[in-house]
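cron nightly-structures :: item 1 of 1
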Amino acid sequence: MGKTVASILRVSAFAGLAAVTGGVALGVAGGFSVAASFGGVASVLGVSTGTLAIATATTAAQLFAGTPKAPRAETASQPLKTERPPRVSAYGRLKLYGAYTLYETAKDGTAVDVWAFHDGRIDGIEAWYLGDKKVTRLANGYVQGEADGLYGDSNIIQIGANLGAATETAHALVIAKVPEVWTSAHRGDGVVTGYMLSAAVKQKNFSATYANGGPNNTPLGLVIRAQPVFDWRDPAQRVDDPLTWRWSENAVLHLAHYQLVRNGKTWARHFAPTLSYWTAAANDADVAMPLRDGGTEPRYRSCVSHRHAGDGSEHKAVIAALLACFDGWMCPREDGALVVYSGRYYEPRVTVGPDIITAYTDEDGIEDENAVNEIGLTYISADHDFNAVDTTPWADEADILARGAVRSEDLANQVPSHSQARRLGKRRMMQTMAPKRGTFTTLAAGSAILSERYVNLIAAEMLGTEDEIVAYSGPAEITGLSRDLQSGAIQASWIAATPDIDEWDPAREEGEPAPTGDTIAREPLDMPVIISATAQYSAVGQTPEGDEPVDPTPGQTATGARVLIAATGPDRDDLTWSARWRVGTSGSWNEREYADADPGPGVSFLTEFVPLSNQINVQVAYSVGDGRLSPWSASAVVDTTTG
């Protein structure tokens, strides 16, 4: 089956984790040593948000750098084999595949595979997959066999996983199979690990049992409720005690967790002073949104899986992915505390006008090459094995008709419903096609806007005179901010805000989820039927060409018995017939393949010599071109003692 991953027992800094969100293969690495540990959570350096990117410079502070594009959830799914894969953690409910930490063959031929899936404790495992196929795990850990022979007789493939507790226990079944390479020291502390034990089967049964070619091509996958997160709104939870935290799909809580646990922010400095903002955004994410077919769903959920950004290179993408799930906006205040807004219209509290604006620009409309009138949308669908699928694009049909062309872009947010994807698509379209946009520069007094997503903007010249020119007056959404550290001047980019951006009619706007259909399963093979089975006698040495005669005892004349079998099966050209016999109803079967039997619904062939007995039990079966073997027929009893 393979061998132990290089250095897994000898190098003290190895660990592996790969995950798939909507099929995305990712990875995690932590400290893994002979003494016990996968473990440890590394903080991530760098600061960014999905809407605001924070940085400093000697003369200017770039507070807002547009909206980084959230990463798309890929559709490929496969385990990761590498000596030192990066760590991965996840939020919400999603499917993960792992990175190999062991692939070995036990002395009894069992293939032993161990993977690391997730850095940190998770809340639970909801479903099990082998490759892209959902399977049933029985109470004893075995995968339930299927009617077509896949996975054998419910005693072939055994799977299991832990939840990544701070102190784990090594998988006992793995130790029992390969004690020379896997011991009780291989706990994987703080990492979700899982295993698969695949028993050896006869070659003729291999294709039926392991339809995709064996464990290498059918890795273990887990549908999990990912890591618990801190919800300060729950009085039972404490920021300094992660064991009190609870699992949630709330996208705002996910962002707070990432900043607090992965990005090194502190509760006292970065969250407590602005907690009212975080509470309002988290409450907004929990708002029940009506669905077209009845019922509701929370407004903003996420199911994001991310790599740990060791050098900061992936940090912006992680924050962007989380913020994109609720069209979030985040910025530091002057005291460094983080301000956050969810994706909804907030009534402006600050007015920016000619008294503090020193310069401005404004643009009417959008250049044709920058116009967007259709947004392709994807989401992570539980109905499609937690893969990324398409929903109805958000389209401005009137603009398409007027423009005479489709101007498309994609929005690949890692959210769990098509309705949420559509609501986010509507917001993106209205922001992208805002009728007015521009920039402005303020005096130092403009610092009041540093924690505001929406402002009342008055871009005007000679206000209050007969020659007054008003370029724009109304609510504006801030889309970019920077500050000159010497003068304190604020520079901002903006778009005209639409107060009705949150209006939602599910009957008209929800669109359609990706179509579902039953997976086409392999049809079980029918059991063949023996029509007749009769004894045939011949003297030894007078056997038909091609059979090996039984040597008689010297000085005696031998008469041997064979069984002539007539049977029926399916009418197909790829059948290869087999027969087996034994004396009585116990003992081992003697089996032989009859490759020269003519294909077709009916077949007749003669067995090899069998013992002289009044109870010879015979059965037949056939295999098909893809390697599957049919069920064995009912036994026919033949008396070979007379002849």
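cron nightly-structures :: done
The longest strand covers residues 469-484.
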